[in-house]
Write a structure and sequence with these properties.
CATH topology of the largest domain: TIM Barrel
Largest sheet: 8 strands, parallel
Radius of gyration: 27 Å
Mean pLDDT: 93
Length: about 450
């Protein structure tokens, strides 16, 4: 059971040092009990107290690392039911299925196609993460061969899916270095698969016929010393599967049920007869509350929208995406190249920089920290005023890179032109276009 705020307070040093960011140890204890603070924020907590407080400091849904390498990811670790309450932390992982009897040529071709599904979006590389290798005939040699090929020749991490102990051992032996997810521990396989997971320090999926039937299985694995689990309630009917996702999340967050405090795995591939419906179901589980979503295949028309949904759902709604303040050189500018300035809102940066790059006009783009706000919003909030922009231009170092004194400001911030001129005597402040799409023609006209 999680400790109460008072119980946590009794274990803290009670110095009221304020180094944790709150005025008193009691306030910190209350924040810790409600998962609004991290234990590492207290620099003076003893090792004995830290051990006792581990449960209270841990998220109600355990974060579970899946895989190794560039596509290593973590699922779980969530603290709220609704995104607007705080944020969702670890994006849903997307998997597609491969059968163990696939031919070598087909496997190479499929992995090549899937690996090409990588998309640049606001500076991030969006891509699917997992391959679910499904045992179809109990042939451990064939299973191990495919698992080895995927693990050694692709960036994808693995879900090993079988009901047979010898097949699972064979798969783990050749791909264990990629930290695969073992699927699944059921009432009949929990002892054998649990032993494999513990011996190799691997995460394991737990499958039952209902949410309630998961509890004795997770408790049994926990008693074996296994901490990294993923839950499958067993339902393949859409309505019931959705209700199970909500019930598991609510039990962990609201009911403090540690037996259900784990991320989940869902199987849209087993709930639909066509790709369109499968993708629709997958999108539902990304929103609520699948940790891993297994598809029958990755196709451009489905995987790209799902990756974008992941990005939107798991972007902190209280903290806009930003880029680092500074000078960005586009198209190899020189001392005579134009200088533009805008805010550090990520979407603004990537749209503006993209248009400048497309114009092929060598330019300097100055990015000013405006707390992640767009130009118009930042100006209205006093984060992109003339004085601030002028001061930033003087301090950023652009004066050492160009001979001229021309600065292009966004059209939506035309009102700050006078203040910028006062802050930058001798500079010519040029009001640029309002819409980014007009930047290429504007820059070419300035030549």
């Amino acid at each position: 059971m999680a400790l109460t705020g008072i119980q946590i307070f009794k274990l803290l040093p009670k110095t009221n040092c304020k180094e944790c960011g709150v005025p008193t140890c009691l306030a910190f204890a209350m924040n810790l009990a409600s998962s609004k603070a991290e234990l590492d924020s207290c620099p003076y907590v003893s090792d004995e107290a830290r051990e006792q407080l581990a449960e209270a400091a841990a998220p109600p849904i355990r974060p579970v690392a899946v895989g190794k390498g560039v596509r290593k990811a973590t699922v779980g670790g969530e603290t709220v039911m609704y995104r607007h309450e705080k944020t969702f932390f670890n994006p849903t992982l997307l998997a597609a299925t491969i059968n163990s009897d696939i031919s070598d040529a087909d496997l190479v071709a499929k992995l090549g196609i899937w690996n090409a599904f990588q998309y640049e979006r606001v500076g991030l590389n969006l891509r699917p993460e997992l391959v679910a290798l499904k045992d179809v005939n109990g042939d451990k040699a064939a299973f191990a061969k495919v698992a080895k090929k995927i693990a050694e020749t692709s960036e994808f991490n693995l879900i090993l899916m079988t009901e047979k102990e010898d097949v699972m051992k064979a798969g783990v032996e050749v791909s264990g270095f990629k930290r695969p997810l073992l699927y699944s521990a059921t009432s009949t396989t929990v002892d054998a698969f649990g032993a494999i997971a513990k011996e190799n320090n691997l995460p394991i999926a737990v499958k039952a016929n209902s949410v309630g039937e998961l509890i004795p299985l997770t408790d049994k694995l926990a008693a074996m010393g296994i901490k990294d689990m993923v839950l499958d309630s067993g339902s393949r009917e859409v309505k019931q599967a959705f209700e199970d996702q909500v019930a598991i999340r609510r039990a962990a967050l609201k009911g403090n049920n540690r037996s259900l405090g784990f991320p989940t795995i869902t199987f849209p591939c087993e709930m639909a007869s066509n790709t369109d419906m499968e993708s629709l179901i997958a999108s539902m589980f990304i929103a609520k509350y699948g940790g891993v979503v297994v598809m029958s295949d990755f196709k451009t028309e489905s995987v790209f929208p799902l990756l974008l949904e992941k990005l939107n759902i798991f972007t902190d709604p209280q903290r806009p995406m930003t880029v680092v303040e500074g000078i960005y050189e586009i198209n190899n500018p020189d001392e005579n190249s134009p200088v533009l300035v805008t805010t550090n809102f990520a979407l603004t940066y990537f749209i503006v920089s993209g248009e400048i790059e497309g114009s092929r006009v060598p330019s300097y783009l100055l990015i000013k920290d405006a707390e992640g706000l767009s130009v118009l919003t930042a100006w209205a909030a006093g984060k992109f005023g003339g004085d601030d922009v002028g001061t930033f231009v003087k301090k950023c170092g652009i004066m050492d890179k160009v001979k001229h004194k021309n600065l292009i400001i966004p059209g939506y911030a035309a009102a700050i032109a006078g203040d910028v001129e006062e802050e930058l005597p001798g500079w010519n402040i040029i009001v640029g276009p309002r819409e980014a799409a007009h930047i290429p023609a504007f820059l070419k006209a300035q030549k």
